[in-house]
UniProtKB/TrEMBL annotation:
Record domain Four-carbon acid sugar kinase N-terminal: where: 4-226
Name of this chain's protein: 3-oxo-tetronate kinase
NCBIfam families in UniProt: OxoTetrKin
Every Four-carbon acid sugar kinase nucleotide binding domain range: 252-407
Record function comment: Catalyzes the ATP-dependent phosphorylation of 3-oxo-tetronate to 3-oxo-tetronate 4-phosphate.
Entry superkingdom: Bacteria
Organism (species): Ancylobacter polymorphus
């Protein structure tokens, strides 16, 4: 059996995907960027990039580098994983990256399926829904980096790609795997590269995954992995290197301003000490990180704490207007990165990180290169454990994932 290779455009999405792939016992390796060292054999390898909002040309280059490395590891099928809300702009980066990967693989028709029904992301008639709302009417409408103001995935993908985009409607998907395969074959005859594929249930994803089993390229959200059947034998999990007695301080770091994360923070801040990083102070060069670190170290060691830069959309918009969108994001990420280094040096051994960009900044700041996948906290969010030093357990949570009690649930969930 060949290895399933996956390229994810952010870190939380990569852990989400790795967790799903590991559910049935597959040996899954999760690596940060392209490794420069040998890795043990695996059934699936997930390469986590931080390429969702960088310039499209850079995202393409990073993804092609990951593809070349995955092929040296025996990857015979590539899954390009992006967010279940299709986070992107008119310029990319989903379309340009998918085009480059497909060209390099000589791929035929590839599905476009960001659906994640368990987390209320569904596709019907090519339109993406978040719960009972079209994407354009959901909280993603005001996302600070990738505001999604439309819901028609066929149109969105066509704007970003150089190739024709078609639709496999739910009427076809509901007929099962063979009907979907027939749609793929017709698309190949018609010169269509991408097929937005409706999915409203996990059963749909199972049928789609089976139909795409021989496709060289698959694109979509992490839940598409539910249908990628396997016959591989799992390797035993490693024994934990972190004992309960060695677990030190627990910290929640949140840079996401998604509606779900704001609700989770409101609940967590009722029961745990919390500290907000002031954007104006960061911009003015004030010792914001030093103040936060001093506050952190003054808290009782056994007490979980919350440090956040999240804010209501109006405050985010004001900060972006004042400092520029990219600069505002970079300033907050630099502050959180500096703080997490101080926190780990001071004894933090469990981190719960909310937001894809924040997760990428934290993982990079700590020099983490590979993670082992643990138990699932909530759909799409597993615990992970560092393979290299420092010895940490980390939950990397997409901003919109998890229920209101996510942080409390995570704390109660063993690796």
């Amino acid at each position: 059996m060949t290895v399933l290779g996956a390229i994810a455009d952010d870190f939380t999405g990569a852990t989400d995907l790795a967790g799903i792939l590991a559910r049935d016992g597959r040996r899954v390796l999760f690596v940060i960027g392209v490794p420069d060292q040998p890795l043990p054999p695996a059934d699936a390898i997930v390469v986590a990039l931080k390429s969702r909002t960088i310039p499209a040309a850079e995202a393409v280059q990073q993804s092609l580098d990951a593809l070349r490395w995955l092929k040296t590891q025996g990857a015979g099928q590539i899954l390009f994983k992006y967010c279940s809300t299709f986070d992107s702009t008119a310029a990319g980066n989903i379309g340009p990256v998918a085009d480059a990967l497909g060209d390099a693989l000589g791929a035929g028709p590839a599905i476009v399926c960001p659906a994640f029904p368990t987390n209320c992301r569904t596709i019907y008639q090519g339109h993406l829904f978040v719960g009972d709302r079209l994407l354009q009417n959901s909280s993603m409408r005001d996302h600070p980096l990738t505001p999604m103001r439309r819901s028609n995935l066929v149109e969105l993908m066509a704007e970003q790609s150089r190739y024709k985009v078609g639709l496999v409607p739910h009427a076809v998907v509901a007929k099962g795997t063979q009907a979907i395969r027939s749609a793929f074959a017709q698309a190949a005859r018609d010169g269509i590269r991408y097929l937005v594929t409706d999915a409203v249930t996990d059963s749909d994803l199972m049928a789609i995954g089976r139909a795409a089993r021989d496709s060289r390229l698959i694109t979509g959200g992490s839940a598409i992995a539910i249908g990628l059947a396997t016959e591989r034998t799992a390797a035993p999990r490693k024994t934990s290197t972190i004992t309960s007695s060695s677990r030190g301080r627990v910290i929640v770091l949140a840079g996401s301003c998604s509606a779900a994360t704001r609700e989770q923070l409101r609940r967590a801040m009722v029961i745990w000490p919390h500290h907000k990083l002031d954007m104006d102070g960061i911009a003015a060069g004030e010792p914001i990180v030093e103040k936060a670190a001093k506050w952190l170290h003054a808290q009782p060691p056994a007490q979980p704490v919350v440090v956040y830069g999240s804010a209501d959309p109006a405050e985010v918009a004001a900060n972006q207007a004042r400092y520029g969108r990219e600069r505002a994001g970079e300033m907050m990420e630099r502050a959180l990165s500096a703080l997490v280094r101080e926190a780990v040096a001071g004894g933090v051994s469990r981190l719960m990180v909310a937001g894809g960009e924040t997760s990428g900044a934290v993982v990079s700041a700590l020099g983490i290169t590979a993670l082992e996948i643990g138990s699932e906290i909530a759909p799409g969010v597993p615990w992970t454990r560092t393979i290299n030093e420092p010895a940490l357990e980390i939950a990397l949570k997409s901003g919109n994932f998890g229920g209101p009690d996510f942080f409390e649930r995570a704390l109660a969930t063993p690796f």
